[in-house]
Design a protein that fits this description.
The complex is a heterodimer of chains A (660) and B (148). Chain A is α+β, with helices and mostly antiparallel strands and 660 residues long. Chain A has helices spanning 2-30, 33-36, 38-62, 69-74, 81-86, 92-113, 119-143, 167-196, 201-232, 243-268, 272-295, 308-332, 347-377, 387-407, 418-424, 426-442, 448-471, 479-488, 491-515, 619-637, 640-643; strands spanning 383-385, 518-524, 529-532, 535-546, 550-561, 564-569, 572-576, 581-585, 587-590, 594-603, 609-617. In chain A, strand 9 (587-590) and strand 10 form a beta hairpin. Chain B has a five-stranded mixed beta barrel. Classes of the chains: A alpha+beta (660), B alpha+beta (148).
């Protein structure tokens, strides 16, 4: 009964989405206020019905209602409650339902926070949202209906892929989708602006918070996926340039460019049509990301839906959304009035450089990810593009971006003096020298490349600190004055500093973990010990245990260094009885400077176990750095100027940062 | 600075980035395109030793053996017409078992043994790697009833 109600609610939501996607747009064009007013009402209604549908599916999962096919295929009565709930979106149908739910939440957010948007713009934005919603709701109902019944109902379900019965993996998709779908708002704003033919600072001020929010969620979502791969796959690596990873990384790169270029539109009224294009691209790449993961066109470590009908439908959606918006862009972008002028060496120039490099990086990742697909489609043979390609193209593009990232914030708008800015970075250069020397003293075997990576990280962090010190005139005016100035620095500026410092931390983590990782694979018997990077790993035993819905083979390692106890590690090999499948749970002890990582594998049949031990330097910094980046984004988002909302007809507020 | 000059700089910078990207992509493609071979392809096309490539097929029944050192695994991969011997040092993926479709990346040694650097088995046991399914179809050994 509840399932049918959910199904019915989903159909009603589609009907509302169709109304939302047509009448308000026509109303805005013809100036019919009543039709425009339909947009907020239908958006709210859509949210209510999709939430009902989602609630109905969750109910079916929690009560283990095995008359619902989706529950049969992805759940089991013995599963812990948490994974029954997260099981709702751990499968194709449910995750698409989550996708539209988040879309509806964002639509509701536009209604709630967009009260002072001009009515026509709001109607158009919500109208475009309605169109996207219609497409995805139709996709759900026609090709991926989660509410189909199973007759006769089996006694129990088939269980959920054990790899997905995991905390980080449970919250990875919602965060990723908050990012993907968040870009639908900036996309809707871009399309609405193209229809209106007007982009101004106020527009950018509405768009930037949405872009920032989406970008923060996406950052965290990607990091969660990476973290999961790190401890769950047991390979000691955290990024494999797997197509599915790239799928989420491309919108992130475009989004990174977008949040930077939107600043230029907001502050300087320039780069308008480029920003519009980026908004379109960021969402298009999100759609392509969904397509790559959901249609199973690529062989990947975690592709899990292979159904040609779905692929064709998503391809159709992609063509309509991307093709339509780009056509609109081609027609209307030339009519956008170009704005403020600037010299190549200026804050704007720096942001343009960021944009060019981010967009180019996204393009190279795109080529590498889709080339095998293209080649196969034209019958050119089966190839795969491995990590070396991505490292070979992505890294050289990021190096100038990181180098320039230091100078950019120090340049004034319009016209700047590069020599002066570099002069002020002397202190950052000194920090680099100290850090590199310190690294060298610890790692005398360090390669030039590794030292360069560390230098880059120090450069980015150092220059961010220098920039902040400059803002508050630290040590150049009395300390009290500096503190007062620090209070006056807008949160958005702090946000930038924090996010850039986070990026530096991540760079250090990437460099150290790829340059100085130590790996050791061997067969060990209880009592054996192995030395990895100065740590003594002793296998004290392997025992059999029982988990809630799996059996465990748990190894115990005692890790010592110079005879002193460091940690005890308990890597597990779990066997899920329902699914008849095994998973690896790596045991990780972090010292914050490195991870000690242990995996116990199959028995060799003569009383020993294959074990894999790693010393992964600075890997924790990757997670810390990403959190710092997202924190910076959040800080920027909390800036009064954003929170006040769009000061549409109000006087522009004090936006001049002290000392800038 | 006139609008025209500014645009010129913009275009020049864009072209520079594009050129650099194209150069990077081409050099990276040169070395890093990894072609896929089925066991039959391996015999027919004889790829040079040491060249990085991917193979795929089913793990032959009763072929998995662990060497005395305990960490090197030897097995054979088949498309049910031809087979190739594979050596792999390390922990096999959790889903690896006989009869299962796998994809392995590595290179051939002088004796024609495939030395795998990486072995991928799918996370989903009902899912046959695309390349493996295609290879089986090509060798004429694809049976719909065994298909997922």
């Amino acid at each position: 009964m509840i399932t049918e109600l959910g199904h019915y609610a989903l159909i009603l939501a589609l009907a509302l989405a169709l109304v939302q996607g047509t009448l308000p747009l026509i109303g805005a064009q013809r100036g019919v206020a009543a039709w425009m007013e339909l947009a907020p009402t239908t958006a709210a209604g859509q949210f209510v019905f999709i939430a009902l549908a989602f609630g109905a599916l969750t109910h079916a999962y929690v009560t283990s209602d095995f008359s619902v096919l989706n529950v049969v295929e992805n759940s089991h009565s013995s599963k812990p409650l948490l994974y029954k709930i997260t099981g709702v979106w751990a499968n194709h149908e449910g995750s698409m339902l989550l996708w539209v739910l988040i879309l509806a939440v964002f639509g509701l957010a536009v209604v709630a926070f967009g009260r002072n948007l001009p009515p026509a713009l709001r109607a158009r934005v919500l109208g475009v949202q309605g169109l996207i919603g219609s497409g995805f709701l139709a996709f759900l109902l026609l090709t991926s209906n989660p509410f189909l019944r199973a007759a006769p109902a089996p006694l129990d379900g088939q269980g959920l892929n054990p790899l997905l019965q995991d905390l980080a993996m449970s919250f990875h998709p919602p965060f990723l989708y908050l990012g993907y779908v968040g870009f639908s708002i900036t996309f809707a704003f871009a399309v609405a602006a193209l229809i209106e033919g007007r982009v101004d600072a106020a527009w950018a001020r509405w768009v930037r918070p949405w872009a920032l929010a989406a970008w923060c969620f996406l950052t965290l979502g990607i990091a969660m996926g990476s973290w999961w791969a790190y401890y769950e796959l047991g390979w000691g690596g955290w990024w494999f340039w797997d197509p599915v990873e790239n799928a989420s990384f491309m919108p992130w790169l475009a989004g990174t460019a977008l949040i930077h270029s939107a600043t230029v539109v907001e502050k300087r009224d320039a780069l308008k049509s480029w920003t519009i294009l980026l908004a379109i691209l960021a969402f298009s790449l999100s759609l392509i990301g969904t397509f790559l993961v959901r249609s199973g066109v690529l062989t990947s470590v975690h592709a899990f839906a292979v159904d040609p009908a779905r692929g064709v439908f998503i391809l159709l959606l992609l063509t309509l959304a991307i093709g339509g918006s780009l056509t609109l862009y081609a027609l209307r972008a030339p009519t956008l009035k170009a704005g403020g002028l600037f010299a190549p060496i200026s804050r704007e120039g720096g942001l343009v450089l960021n944009n060019i490099l981010m967009a180019t990086a996204a393009a190279t990742v795109f080529i590498g990810t889709l080339y095998p697909l293209l080649l196969d489609a034209v019958g050119g043979g089966k190839v795969s593009v491995g990590a070396p390609y991505f490292n070979g193209t992505f890294v050289p593009l990021m190096v100038p971006a990181l180098l320039a990232m230091a100078a950019g914030p120090l340049l004034p708008w319009k016209r700047a003096d590069l020599a002066g800015a570099l002069g002020r970075l002397k202190l950052a250069a000194a920090i680099v020298v100290v850090v590199v020397a310190a690294t060298w003293s610890v790692r005398t075997d360090a390669s030039i490349l590794a030292l360069f990576g560390i230098a880059l990280a120090a450069w980015v962090v150092g220059s961010a600190l220098v920039e902040l010190a400059e803002r508050v005139k630290l040590f150049r005016v009395p300390l009290g004055d500096s503190l007062r100035r620090a209070g006056g620095v807008p949160r958005a500026a702090y946000g930038m500093t924090v996010a850039h410092i986070g990026a530096g931390i991540v760079v250090a983590g990437i460099t150290a973990s790829s340059a100085w990782r130590t790996e050791s694979i061997q067969v060990m018997r209880p009592g054996d010990s192995v030395v990895v990077a100065g740590y003594d790993f002793a296998l004290t035993g392997v025992e059999e245990l029982q988990g809630p819905n799996y059996t465990i083979q748990r190894g115990t390692f005692t890790v010592t260094r110079d005879g002193r106890m460091v940690a005890r590690l308990f890597p597990e090999e779990r066997f899920y009885t329902v699914e008849q499948r095994q998973t690896t749970e790596a045991a990780i002890h972090t010292t914050w400077l490195a991870d000690l990582y242990a995996v116990v594998g199959d028995p060799d049949g003569t009383g020993g176990w294959v074990t894999r031990l790693y010393h992964n330097p600075l890997v924790p910094w990757l997670w810390i750095g990403t959190i710092v980046i997202a924190l910076g984004g959040g800080l920027s988002l909390s800036d009064r100027r954003h929170r006040v909302g769009a000061p549409a007809r109000r006087r522009r507020e004090r936006a001049v940062p002290a000392g800038a | 600075m006139t609008r025209k000059r500014r645009r010129l700089y913009g275009v020049a910078l864009g072209m520079l980035a594009l050129g650099a990207a194209v150069a990077l992509v081409l050099t990276a493609f040169e070395d890093n395109l990894v072609f896929f071979y089925s066991p039959t392809d391996l015999i027919e096309k004889q790829p040079p030793a040491a060249r990085s490539l991917r193979i795929g097929g089913l793990v032959e029944e009763n072929s998995v053996r662990r060497r005395a050192d305990g960490k090197t695994v030897e097995f054979r991969v088949t498309d049910l017409v031809n087979t190739v011997a594979v050596h792999y040092e390390g922990i096999l993926p959790d889903l690896f078992r006989e009869g299962q479709g796998i994809v392995a990346e590595g290179s051939l040694d002088a004796e024609g043994v495939f030395v795998a650097r990486e072995v991928l088995a799918k996370h989903d046991e009902t899912y046959m790697p695309r390349e493996v399914a295609d290879a089986l179809k090509k060798s004429g050994m694809w049976r719909e009833d065994t298909a997922p």
